[in-house]
Amino acid sequence: MRPLSASAAALAMALATSTTAEPIAARVTHPYAGMWVTDDGRVRHELLPDGRYDEARGERESAYRGRYEVTGSHIEYWDDTGFTADGDFVDLDTLHHGGMVLRRRLWPSAPTPSP
User: Can you name the residues that pair with 37 across neighbouring β-strands?
Assistant: First the structure.
């Protein structure tokens, strides 16, 4: 039996000591991670780099939470309550989801870019 390389040994250790059942691939940052907001600011999606999302609606913070997966420019959502949804990124700064248009916001207090 051959000994593991240092990088393979580190990966094996990380897998063996992981406290989450979440796949490693879900922790990889993609170009769409970040804050997405409707032009009126009412709906705010935060796509976290660990494959989770947190959505605020109006004054209700964390109205929906769950996991998501991005394949190409398509996003699938699975809310923690079992609700599912999807959307499409039409460019790096525009997300179409549930009949809404959300735009990337670089900072939570920054104004939403104009269309």
Answer: 44, 103
